[in-house]
Amino acid sequence: MGPCRRTSSTGQDGHGATSGDDEEWRVRARRCTAWGRRARPERGSRAPAVGRAGAVTVAVALLTGVPGLSAGQQAAAAGAPGAYAFDEGAPRVEGALSTADAVLLEAGRTYRSTLPASGPVHYRLELDGASNVYVAATAAPPDGGGAAVVDGVKVSVQDGDGRSCDVDTTTFGAAASPHPVAASAAREISPRRSLCKNAGTYYVIVERADPDGKGASPDAWELELTTVSEPRPAQAGATTAPDAWDSAPPEPVTGEARRRAGGAGFAEAASLGEGVWRDDIRPGQTLFYKVPVGWGRKFNATAELGSSSSGGTGFVPAALDLDLYNPVRGHVADVGIGYDGRQRSGSLSPLPHVAYANRHAPRSQVAAMRFAGSYYLVAHLAEKVADDFGDGPVPLTLRVRVSGTTQDGPGYAGEPVPPDVFAVGEQDREAVADGRDAGRAGNDSAMTALAVGGIGTGSALLVGLGVWTAAARRRTASPGR
Predict the structure, then answer these.
(1) pTM value?
(2) How far from chain centre, in Å, is Cα 153?
(3) Most confident of 107-111, 209-213, 456-460
(4) What is the CA radius of gyration of the chain?
């Protein structure tokens, strides 16, 4: 975990941060805040980038609602790198100021909501006495706003008497660059827990981690809420985590890189498998990828920023933030990479094989590797990279390794909700092979989609796009540009 990134998950069984941990974090937070102030140069005025992306911006404005182009793809094509692509089928619900007015969240559903600049919002769960339920909140701050180092999103689940079942916090980290972050809390039925076992009404509380921190955004944030239900195993299994696992760093994957465009949100995450994958990422942009990892399998990833062609100089100490989330959007691990215009790389810390019994581990990174399913890699390039190296894209390479022997799962007594959340099937493997789940189109792909979708809007627009594209290409080819 990066020295200026905190994720914590504390349940009523006592696992999680202690008072000593909290004091250590407060010291680190003060240092990181000062580091962020020293590292960030004053923003100078820059002329807006001219080229193909500019043409697409106007095209998107004229073609709002074009079939086949998601909101995330429209935003990316329009030059809004920080825009988050929400699940397009998610209904909107309003978080309540009091538990008395909390709206019901149903298992297996995704919702949209709003997180105010200060104060918590409440939602309601109606739970049985046999299933584990996980609720994740993905917070999407507005593009171009401020961010405090230890601000982010905090999620907790409480019973009807206000007792805590679980709490989780994920923050922006040292870069203090606003980007989507997710935290997940659970109502887990376990022999180690004396509370939160019974059927009944529970409450989900979502709030900002540090809304009063220096540089924190004064704006409301958009939220995406997901709920997952996990049935109990058909047969009782191990009640302790595996004693030992190979924690040696694996060798990074080598070979020719394949192009795969990352998505603009969890719902649009591009499918990756073992191999070397190539993309481009712009300052302020966040890209989402998903990797199917079955029971008994082991996952590792290395991220590389390629050398800059801008001619700029400087150093951004926390330029790239790479986060790993599990199938219920629980934070697993992260790595931060500094950038000075030369190629730089960083790897996630070694993780155990995916096993149901990992949930009994005291270490949060191990406990988070408790499910088979899609694990999400989320890459964010800090906005301040543009100050030294321009607004153009930076080459990004992901080296993904999935090793180990596939094993049988726990044998659930019922069906998870949604039913495929903890499974890796043939469809997942096919998606990796053909890339059809790649959610974010590049500029060329976006322009193609816009042109095709806009046929019915009139030939004049297509002619205009063609002229503008040709002009942009001539400007790109002109000397001195």
Answers:
(1) 0.79
(2) 12
(3) 107-111
(4) 22
Core vs surface per residue 1-36: b (16+ CB within 10 A) or e: bbebbbbbbbbbbebbbeeeeeeebeebbeebbebb
Report how far Cα 141 is from the mean position of its chain's Cα atoms. Answer: 13
| Angle subtended at Cα 391 by Cα 273 and Cα 452, rounded to the nearest 5 degrees | 65
Q: What's at 194, amino acid-wise?
A: S
Q: Are 268 and 287 in contact (CB under 8 A)?
A: no
Sign for the pseudo-dihedral over CA of 192, 407, 226, 287: positive
Provide CATH code, domain 91-232: 2.60.120.380
**Residue 267: what residue type?**
A
Highest mean pLDDT among 193-197, 420-424, 443-447: 420-424
For residues 136 and 167, is the Cβ–Cβ distance under 8 A?
Answer: no
**Tens digit of pLDDT for each residue in 239-278?**
788 887 888 888 889 999 999 999 999 999 999 999 999 9
